[in-house]
Design brief:
Blueprint lengths: L1 E3 L13 E2 L2 E2 H11 L8 E3 L2 H8 L5 E3 L7 H9 L6 E4 L9 H12 L8 E8 L2 H5 L5 E4 L5 E5 L15 E11 H9 L4 H6 L4 H5 L4 E5 L10 H11 L1
Parallel strand pairs: 1-4, 4-5, 7-11
Antiparallel strand pairs: 2-3, 6-10, 7-10, 8-9, 8-10
Helix pairs in contact: 3-6
């Protein structure tokens, strides 16, 4: 599932911007289909413009019935009555979708025989100090088994002890859910930590869900600003 809304706060209409002769959302959809990892791929949107862009180029799209604050809610509504086990959330603003990273997420559930993992997500090791401090970069800390302990826009862990060799990880907003987990998210109210950080996956932690983090070295380009779009154009060339 690729949740896609037209009116992004920082870069309105970003999914319909031209990227090498195709829109951002079309490139994301086609890259996801091309991985050949999924039984089906849909764009889920509240926008007639985005819906028509996908349908008119031979893709599959669904219109949301209700208004939603986040992509997880949009996906939950779409899959509620589908006969499925695992749902993958690919962000609509990531046209360079990476097959190997998605494959690793799916493997988490193939190996989870007692079904103790509710969802899995990606993280990337980062070293740039400005990125670590940047509130637009969501950081994650994990336990020794790579289960998420917390997500924050602040630098975590805080480097009070300067001599320690700390590693920082950026959270990439690509998720794999058990269907029951995302439906629970949809039905449960937002709690204070999620509201404070504006990071939706904190809701899972606040309600005791287990998030398995998978490290990847593919950073990609998330198109949040016009500057990101220019970087994506250069990368495409």
């Amino acid at each position: 599932m690729i949740p896609a809304r037209y009116s992004a706060t920082r870069f309105p209409g970003k999914l319909m911007q031209d990227l090498g002769g195709k829109t951002v959302i079309r490139r994301t959809y086609e890259a996801t289909v091309a991985t050949d990892l999924f039984d089906d791929v849909f764009v889920v949107t509240d926008s007639d413009i985005i819906y028509n862009e996908i349908i008119n180029h031979g893709g599959k799209a669904m219109m949301s019935i209700k208004e939603h604050d986040c992509g997880s809610d949009r996906i939950a509504e779409a899959v509620e009555h589908m006969d499925i086990d695992i749902v993958i959330n690919v962000q609509g603003d990531e046209p360079f979708t990476d097959k190997e990273s998605l494959r690793k997420l799916i493997e988490v559930f193939r190996d989870d025989h007692d079904k103790s993992i509710d969802l899995a997500s990606l993280m990337v090791h980062i070293t740039d100090k400005e990125e670590i401090k940047n509130p637009n970069t969501v950081k994650v800390i994990v336990d020794q088994s790579n289960f998420a302990l917390y997500f924050s826009r602040s630098p975590i862990p805080y480097p009070r002890e300067k001599d320690l060799d700390l590693k920082y990880f950026k959270h990439k907003g690509v998720y794999a859910f058990r269907k029951e987990a995302i439906l629970d998210f949809y039905r449960l109210p937002m709690l204070p930590l999620e509201a404070a950080e504006k990071i939706e996956c904190i809701r899972y932690l606040e309600y005791g869900k287990r998030i398995k983090m998978v490290e990847t070295d593919v950073l990609g380009v998330e198109i949040d600003t016009p500057e990101d779009l220019e970087r994506a154009k250069k990368l495409l060339k």
